[in-house]
Amino acid sequence: MDINRLKEYAELIVKMGLRPEKGQEVMIMAGLDQIEFVRMVAELCYQEGAGKVQVDWQDMPLNKLAQIYQTEEKLSSIEDWELAKLKWRSETLPCFLWLDSDDPDGMDGIDQGKRARAQMARFPKIKPYRDAMENKYQWCIAGVPGVKWAKKVFPELTEVEAVEKLWEAILQAARVDGNAISNWQQHNKRIHELTAKLNSYQLAALEYKSANGTDFHVGLMEQGVFAGAEEHDLSGRGFNPNIPSEEIFTTPKKGEADGVLVATKPLSWQGSLIEDFSIRFENGKAVEVKARKGQDALERMIAMDENAPYLGECALIDYDSPINQMNTLFYSTLYDENASCHLALGRGFDVCVKDFSKYTADELKALGVNDSMIHVDFMIGSADLEITGITASGERVKIFQNGHWAI
Fold first, then answer.
1. Residues in a beta bridge with 293
2. Residue 380 half-sphere exposure, CB side, CA atoms within 13 Å?
3. pTM for this predicted structure
4. Which tens digits make up the pLDDT trace of 181-212?
5. DSSP letter, residue 224
6. Distance between CA 224 and CA 356 in Å, rounded?
7. How many angstroms separate the Cα of 63 from the Cα of each of 54, 66, 135, 273, 377?
């Protein structure tokens, strides 16, 4: 890949994604196969004024070995130094960047039940620190091609060719064409204009219908708002949390969802692939799941905690989004979720409540924001998807028609 295009992508991640302040520390999580790109990003962070850049190196094969050979008791435990690190993050609030290059099949063959139980055991100890950091720092997720991931997406190519082609797809999805930062400034502006239009309707519910069997009604919070693209933390610092990002999203009201959602793309979750699946809701809760492949994984997902079967996000994306036009299945939620409309099981977003900073965590839950250890997006967009908004007065507003924006 041309070094100048990689530098442009790295600049986009740092200058539009993270936007570190002078003296602010930066944490990068990345795979061992991404050393050169991480060095490039780290240098740019320093040039932007970062006080210190730390890298948390990850290796999926090593993580898989841990899952296979460690006891469930050991996997469930948290060392004192891990808690100290979380405490430091919650007090220091560094920018956080995740460069995702994971193998979609990287955790195949492990005892997924053992893994899930260990995660559930660890989560209550992690949650207080996660809550303490919520909406207080800039963060960004961006993709970089790993060999296994590239071969999954382009199995007919050699490893070198597959990585090169995945790089091309990633850069295209990120609008890296020599004017990446300008492109994103315009993109942020367009998303914010659409978001303002949606919020002007003061919608109380959304209805979804598609010929594939999707027939679904979900309630929205009275204080809820739609958001998208650029976000701001509680101190007013702007950042783009996802590169790429095509979505406009909101958090639905917990307990108000009924009907069936049929997935239109496979879902890669924790190293397992879930395909051809549907989820049926009653009174806000997923009460039945069906999958041609990955049924066990889907069942584990909604059993991760008591709120995992409830929704945390409704995201709207035009069927002709740039990523969907690429006609590529990425086997990565970061990319596949930005190809079409999706919803998410699990944790909702405080930022989707108007003036959210004025509310306590308990008050936000009372308003209808779901709280869970998971947040898993699944795609339901199709060429014939119809989405109708319903206002508090009962007025019906066509939001999507034949998969496209109707507003």
1. 275
2. 30
3. 0.89
4. 999 999 999 999 999 999 999 999 999 999 99
5. B
6. 9
7. 20, 5, 29, 18, 23
To which residue do tokens 């049926």 refer? 280
Q: Identify each DSSP E strand in 317-368 by its residue range.
A: 342-346
Measured at the CA of 100, the angle between CA 96 and CA 102, to 5 degrees, comes to 140
Cis (ω within 30 of 0) for the bond into 244?
yes
With H, G, I as helix, E, B as strand and everything else as coil, classify residue 124.
helix
Length of the chain: 407
User: Tokens 């139980």 — which residue?
Assistant: 117
CA distance 407 to 387: 11
Task: Retrieve residue 326's tokens.
Answer: 């690429």
Nearest Cα to Cα of residue 241 among 160, 137, 162: 137
Q: Which residue has the tokens 């079967």?
A: 309
How far apart CA 28 and CA 31 sit, in angstroms, is 10
Q: Quote the pLDDT of residue 333.
A: 86
Phi, psi of 272 (to 5 degrees): -115, 140
CB neighbourhood size of 122 (10 A): 16
Q: What is the distance between the alpha carbons of residues 111 and 114, in angstroms, rounded to a whole number?
A: 5
Residue segments in the chain with a per-residue pLDDT below the cut of 70? none
**pLDDT of res. 46:** 98
Q: Tokens 């009604």 identify what position?
A: 217
